[in-house]
Design a protein that fits this description.
Length: about 190
């Protein structure tokens, strides 16, 4: 699976640069004008959500062009992180989808050859869903292509900009882990 380089990091327009400078004035928690901390945090949360979603959209695009929908990609990623496999209910919980949707999704994954059903060694009555070699190769190819495309876009940034992104990664990871631990409703509706 070869994907074209992702156009993830676009050059900001002059208006965007001005808005980012204004938003960056003052410290978060004080507001740009020293005003309401809650408003500054809501603005930061809204901006972060919007940009993370835009980036995620562009990172999923090669998978979609390959016939792997965002839902299928999320299921493959969940299975890739669960070496021993997942029961249908566990997959549904991780993805935040209904059991009926999970059943249809499992049929699609198994039908495409990306996943297989196996008996749970801990409970012979239960079935685990595991990645097949084809599924593992599909997700590895997509990840490799995504990383290469994103790296090409990151190479257009200056060293200071790349350092800012590198410094943000542990913060984003901690935020993500906190939200996952708290459950899917922790980030609020529409997330």
């Amino acid at each position: 699976m070869s994907a074209a380089p992702l156009d993830v990091v676009a050059q900001p327009r002059d208006a965007d640069r001005t808005a980012h400078r204004r938003a960056g004035e003052g410290r978060v928690g004080e507001g740009a004008d020293g005003g309401d901390a809650d408003e500054a945090l809501r603005r930061l949360a809204g901006d972060l959500r919007a940009e993370v979603n835009r980036l995620a959209y562009h990172l999923r695009a090669p998978a979609t062009r390959s016939g792997i929908t965002p839902t299928r990609l999320a299921a493959l990623a969940a299975l890739a992180h669960a070496e021993a496999g997942l029961r249908a209910g566990d997959l549904a919980a991780r993805m935040g989808i209904s059991p009926a949707s999970t059943s249809r999704l499992i049929e699609l994954l198994v039908g495409a050859g990306w996943a297989a059903r196996t008996r749970d060694p801990q409970d012979a009555r239960a079935v685990l869903l595991t990645l097949t070699d084809l599924g593992r190769h599909a997700i590895e190819d997509l990840r490799r292509d995504n990383v290469a495309g994103l790296a090409a876009n990151l190479s257009t940034l200056g060293p200071d900009e790349r350092a800012v992104l590198a410094a943000a990664i542990p913060l984003l990871r901690a935020l993500s882990e906190r939200l996952l631990a708290a459950g899917s409703d922790a980030a609020g509706p529409g997330t």
